[in-house]
Write a structure and sequence with these properties.
The protein is of the alpha/beta class. The protein folds into two domains: about 40 residues, no CATH class; about 140 residues, Nitrile hydratase alpha /Thiocyanate hydrolase gamma (Nitrile Hydratase, Chain A, Alpha-Beta Complex), CATH 3.90.330. The chain contains eleven helices and four strands, in the order H-H-H-H-H-E-E-H-H-H-H-E-E-H-H. The chain starts with 17 loop residues before the first helix and ends in a 5-residue tail after the last helix. Bound molecules: fe (iii) ion. The site of fe (iii) ion has 6 residues, from loops.
């Protein structure tokens, strides 16, 4: 008997491949009459059709150019997202702003929670056990591996996402960008910048 042959209840199926676990969940939704196969497929198609880090980048650039939007973004992320047309996120969005004193980085230590609709599909490293476990324990070392070295005295805040509350980082507006429009600025914002594993 291999280690995968043991009998376990429905709640303990963590050794199944993710696709099989997802399918099991879908079958339960269908059996309960909550959704059909077609509805689930259509929802995923809609989500992935529009899910892109361009969305988060537009929000960050708008915040850099519009103080009132920045205030809304930091106090009510969902309202700020809706303001740019990203409605019904399905989770609470919390945006944390980098400052000269504090650098923020997001992680989901339990699994891989992440604002997909605003950042696009999550990178493989975000879902890796190494990133999930080490970011909380040794954030300076993890950021150094991403090529981010912060000035002495800058504090790192690590934000642990859950299925209900998901985080996005508002990077510091790069120096020398005074004359740029929000559209030009949005092109400077990277996915890593919105996660906190890059400066912008
Ligand atoms: Fe998660």
């Amino acid at each position: 008997m291999s280690e995968h042959d043991h009998v376990h209840g429905d709640a303990d199926h963590h050794d199944l491949p993710v696709a099989a676990r997802v399918r099991r969940l879908e079958e339960r939704l269908i059996a309960a009459g909550l959704a059909s196969d077609e509805e689930i497929d259509a929802f995923l198609a809609r989500l992935y059709d529009s899910a892109s880090p361009v969305n988060g980048a537009r929000m960050a650039a708008r915040a850099w150019t519009d103080p009132a939007y920045r205030e809304l973004l930091l106090s009510d992320g969902n309202a700020a997202a809706a303001g740019l047309g990203f409605t019904e996120l399905g989770y609470q969005l919390r945006v944390v702003a980098n400052t000269p004193q504090t650098h923020n980085v997001i992680v989901c230590t339990l699994c891989s929670c992440y604002p997909v609709s605003l950042l696009g599909p999550s990178p493989g490293w975000y879902k890796s056990f190494a990133y999930r476990s080490r970011t909380v324990r040794e954030p300076h070392a993890v950021l150094a591996e991403f090529g981010v070295t912060l000035p002495a005295g800058v504090r790192i805040s690590v934000w642990d996402s859950t299925s209900e509350a998901r985080y996005m980082v508002l990077p510091v507006r790069p120096a020398g960008t005074d004359g740029m429009t929000a559209a030009e600025l949005a092109e400077l914002v990277t996915l890593k910048g919105l996660i906190g594993t890059a400066l912008a």
